[in-house]
UniProtKB/TrEMBL annotation:
Keyword Magnesium: no
Annotated Glycosyl hydrolase family domain residues: 227-675
Keywords from the named record: Hydrolase
Residue numbers spanned by region Disordered: 675-696
GO molecular function: hydrolase activity
Pfam family, one: Glyco_hydro_92
Domain Glycosyl hydrolase family 92 N-terminal: residue ranges: 35-221
Name of this chain's protein: Glycosyl hydrolase family 92
Length: 696
């Protein structure tokens, strides 16, 4: 549930040097990497963070309280899963680790007569325009003996913290507006506004000898200070210090999760990128079991679903494969959100309101629910789930879709038609045939979104993309989709145009690109290289037209040239791990088709990989590599793509370019023989489509 990070106030997460930016190279806010303290609750690679999170700032200082908002350069940084360390310019060595619902800080001070640790409860958001969070209510209490607690209501959520500071002989005080409150033990703010907010919090102060360490332990809860105290005691125990214990426990948990996907071969740089991608894929969503501030019952509570639009295609299938128990908890939590707040969320943060980001897309939870039901491993009340799935189809844009069969923005027509199809599969499995038939009939209305004259989507508004970006979605009836475009050749020709085959290279925009430059780029109607979510599955659309060799070329180029180990090593926002999950699947030679319980096959980037699923292990092994792809650390020359020549599953020939999800989750040995030239493999036996004739 908890994250902790150095805080500068800059984009993208409050740790960084840049101003918020949506086009071209970002502009720097600061010339150096710096921090004014360390905050809790961060986004992971999202674009629209602005005022969300970065709460409860902890600042170690040897300056007066008046200097609280000063930032100091960071030196000697160390970053590992579950651990961060850096030295401030003031000479204070800072270390952070987190547990499930706790954070532990350890500060090593230089010799000073008046060292201090300051907790700012009023902090939140970013130091950019319109980026500040203002609490609406708050209370803080100093209880003596190194103990304090407080609650701040941020974005409609009561965030409580209970903290302990190991600093023998130090004084502790409350402060308000950078002034110490001598003898005061409690602050209460019943109503705070932008114009009345002044910073407030707690302070621990005293002499420090050189090398003296001070440990700060913080327990968090969304259900009050008493539960925050219990959370702290559960994870840190009664004894102190607790830093190393919590760090080792968290390190072990990360090790177990990261070991669930292992790769062999490739260069060290490529393995580094893969390991980093897997780590990023597992940071979010956040789980705060028994912590919902909106309903009193126990059970899973998930937030930082930021957003379904970003993660439903790649990350949710990855969670389902390697952490199935958590994937089930997420779905249970989302059903509870729908029941309590009125609709399935497209984005759900630690904030009141489940209707945020509905402009991005519609009814995406349905895909994950359909996949979970098809696998049969999630212990949900499926009749209860189906009620909410059907009800959610009528909300927001769904009402117009229900009445007219088409809705604008036109991409919501695709979303809603697909969600009707996914819901129909669940209804049919539960023997509600009348409902299933009605849903399936409405699910066929995806055709209303397309212009038969162009084979592309109709003109409309588009969210963070254009007509071409959205026109190659993997639908539930790709055979009919390809026929609508004019057939295999015409469909492949349009895909080739989209991916720039035979076209001149595109110049990337620099700082402050003018509108004309950006408009010229968008007018190319070109794949933007995973810069955003709408077209991340488009390379696999070639499979449905019998051209898996094209998929191999596009995916290989993306893995080789668009990901690296240093700054700028991602082609776009990671978006809570959605992009990193794409990298994981693409490297394994697999791609999940969310909502269809289906995986598409492609040439992998590693010689051998093992995916540890809930039921077993899927081994993906290759032979016939002419050359191992390099591609992430400045290769000499362009490494050639590899193409699947033939495939076997557990020793039996596999002529199709797909596997059902149950097979992937059950495990086995998938052997792919690769070669330097395209082959006939996969040209005839296409992935399934709704309009396929029944199997005999």
């Amino acid at each position: 549930m908890v994250s902790a990070c150095a805080y500068s106030g800059a984009y993208p997460t409050g740790y960084g040097r840049y101003a918020k930016n949506t086009e071209g190279v970002p502009e720097e806010m600061f010339e150096r990497l710096q921090a004014s303290g360390f905050t809790h609750f961060q986004q992971s690679g999202t674009g629209a963070i602005r005022k969300y999170y970065n709460y409860v700032r902890v600042t170690p200082m040897v300056q007066p309280l008046d200097d609280l908002n000063e930032s100091w350069p960071l030196h000697d940084e160390v970053a590992e899963a579950g651990y961060y360390a850096a030295t401030l310019d003031t000479g204070i060595r800072c270390e952070l680790t987190v547990g499930t619902k706790v954070a532990v800080h350890r500060y090593t001070f230089p010799e000073h007569s008046s060292a201090r640790v300051v907790i700012d409860l009023s902090c939140g958001g970013l130091g950019i325009d319109l980026g500040r969070t203002v609490p609406v209510r708050a209370q803080a209490e100093s209880m003596g003996h190194g103990r304090a607690q407080g609650t701040v209501v941020m974005e409609g959520v009561p965030l409580s913290v209970y903290l302990e500071v190991d600093s023998p002989g130090w004084r502790q005080m409350l402060w308000y507006d950078r002034r110490l409150i001598h003898g005061g033990t409690r602050l209460d703010f019943d109503s705070i506004r932008q114009t009345t907010l002044r910073p407030f919090g707690m302070l621990f102060m005293g002499p420090a000898r050189a090398g003296q360490t001070v440990e700060v332990r913080l327990g968090f809860s969304l259900r009050g200070c008493e539960q925050a105290r219990h959370n702290l005691e559960r994870e840190c125990g009664q004894a102190s210090p607790a830093f190393d214990t919590v760090r080792l426990r968290t390190r072990a948990r990360w090790g177990d999760h990261l070991d669930r996907v292992q790769v062999e071969g490739g260069t060290p740089a490529r393995r580094t990128v893969f390991g980093t991608a897997l780590y990023h894929a597992l940071i979010k969503p956040c789980f705060g079991d028994d912590e919902s501030p909106f309903w009193p019952t126990p059970g899973p509570f998930a937030f930082d679903v930021c957003t379904m639009w970003d993660i439903y295609k790649t990350q949710l299938p990855l969670l389902s494969a390697i952490v199935p128990e958590r994937a089930g908890d997420l779905l249970e939590s989302l059903i509870r959100v729908c029941e309590e707040e009125g609709n399935f969320p497209i984005g759900y943060r630690m904030a009141r309101g489940a209707d945020r980001f509905f402009r991005q897309a519609s009814a995406l939870v349905h895909t994950a629910l359909a996949d979970a039901h098809a696998l049969g491993r999630t212990a949900l009340d499926w009749n209860w789930a189906l009620v909410h799935m059907v009800g959610d189809l009528r909300r927001m844009y769904g009402e117009d879709f229900f009445e007219h069969g088409v809705v604008h923005p036109i991409t919501h027509t695709l979303d809603l038609a697909y969600a009707h199809h996914c819901t129909a599969q669940v209804a049919r499995a539960l023997n509600d045939r009348r409902l299933a038939d009605d849903l399936e009939r409405r699910g066929r209305q995806w055709t209303n979104a397309f212009d038969p004259g162009t084979g592309l989507l109709r003109d409309s508004e588009f969210y963070e993309g254009g007509k071409w970006n959205y026109s190659f979605r993997l639908l539930h009836d790709m055979a009919a989709r390809i026929a609508l475009a004019g057939g295999d050749k015409e469909f492949v020709d349009k895909l080739d145009q989209f991916f720039g085959f035979g076209a001149r290279p595109v110049r990337q925009p620099g700082r402050r690109p003018d509108p004309a430059e950006m408009a010229a780029g968008y007018a190319l109607n070109r794949f933007e290289g995973l810069n955003n979510e709408p077209d991340m599955e488009a390379p696999w659309a070639y499979h449905y037209a019998g051209r898996p060799d094209r998929t191999a070329e596009v995916v290989h180029a993306a893995l080789t040239w668009q990901f690296g180990t240093g700054p700028g090593g991602l082609p776009g926002n990671d978006d809570s791990g959605g992009l990193s999950s794409w990298y994981v699947w693409a490297s394994l030679g697999l791609f999940p088709v969310a909502g269809q319980s289906l995986f598409l096959l492609n040439a992998p980037a590693f010689e051998r990989a093992v995916l540890r699923t809930g039921d077993g292990e899927l081994v993906v092994e290759t032979s016939g590599h002419r050359e191992t792809p390099i591609g992430v650390d400045g290769p000499e020359g362009h490494p050639p793509p590899q193409y699947v020549q033939s495939a076997t599953l557990d020793g039996k020939p596999l002529h199709a370019t797909h596997l059902d999800a149950a097979t992937v989750h059950r495990g086995g040995v998938l052997h792919l023989r690769l070669g330097p030239e395209p082959s006939a493999w996969g040209q005839e036996l296409r992935p399934p489509s709704l309009s396929d004739p029944p199997a005999t």
